[in-house]
Predict the 3D structure of the following.
Amino acid sequence: MIRFDAVSKNYPNGTTAVDELSLELAEGGITVLVGPSGCGKTTTLRMVNRMVEPTAGTVSLRGQDIREIAAPELRRGIGYVIQHAGLFPHRTVLDNIATVPLLLGWGKKKARSRAAELLELVGLPSSMAKRYPYQLSGGQQQRVGVARALGADPPVLLMDEPFSAVDPIVRGELQAEFIRLQKELHKTIVFVTHDIDEAIKLGDNIAVFRTGGKLAQFDTPERLLAHPADDFVADFVGQDRGIRRLSFVKAADLPLREGLVLPADSPVARARAAGEPWVLVVDGDRRPLGWAAVADLPTGGTLADAALTPLGHTFSLAGDSARAALDAALLSPSRLAVGVDPQGAVVGVADAYELSAAMTGDGTAVEVAAEVAAEAAAEDSVSKVSVAKGETDGGSGGDADGTGDSGGSGAGGDGR
Ligand code: ADP
């Protein structure tokens, strides 16, 4: 839908902001541009609505070279959201949101009723309509910024570090809200961030840039974690990419053992026969009651007589990811994760190694197992984890500095 063909942007001072970028962004999806500060993300974004013109190459929208479309007309179909929301301080929330419809000549009444609709859509109460931006929190301002960008219902949305200026908790809420909103709206979104976690959370596809405006990899989050193209990308996505990749594996696909799950009326001898240090005791509806340590069991009787260790948390086979299962295993007193069905009945248990082995057989399982071992060691707080492998890479600068962009918002305001 949005296509870059060998696009470069060179500045007169000799800076190459973007270097021969070729990229095709899918319609109705979120493409995240991510990379360290100064690698050309914002420049790339701004070439989509002609706030920046390429030095070479072509940007096209639905097959049409955007140079053939007058900038104001082009921007009518492209919403734009920036860090700090960029709201007009002297206008009320409602009037801020109504900006674009008013510019398009909708008439005050229709524009305001659209704005009221959008206010609700981004999860703000109507009582905020008459407030001024300074009377809102950072997160609320950012929601208004999103609502304003959606004013004329543009098919394309450009978002430049929209959630970077708010604290982590509010950022998490905004991200969740944004995912919900996109499920409803199906916009074609280009989203800039320096935060790889945000990219993985939000992106349908991710373009990783390296300094010098070069595209290092363009892939789905899952593939990026599983198969980073080179050391730079591997470093940028982080040493824990194996574990993070588990978020993309459904818990439903994990193999579980049933032999360690025993009803409370089972004889103690049956628990011993299982040959493992722990068994899970369940009630008549297979709801979990707790763990029985086999070494501490009485000599006879049933498991109903055993002292049980509390369960820890379970994971749901219906909705959770393998990462939740792994988490449950690491936090469990038995180091076993308990998988339950939607009714809360136990389906089976698995340990961290079995869970990691369930990863597709491309070597990632090995990495996951190594990470699991490290996490388990940390959990046990036994000595410091000796770094088994991959000593530091001399800090090759992959990690974003978190300072975000330095402003430089050449066009000012919201670019309309
Ligand atoms: P990012 O968004 O990844 O932080 P930018 O796209 O803002 O990076 O910038 C890419 C590079 O281009 C940086 O080195 C930046 O300093 C440079 N740059 C951006 N705008 C200009 C400009 N107007 N003149 C000269 N250099 C610029």
About this structure: The pocket of adenosine-5'-diphosphate is lined by residues 11, 13, 15, 17, 35, 37-43, 405, 408, 410 (CB under 6 Å). Residues 381-416 have pLDDT under 50 and may be disordered.
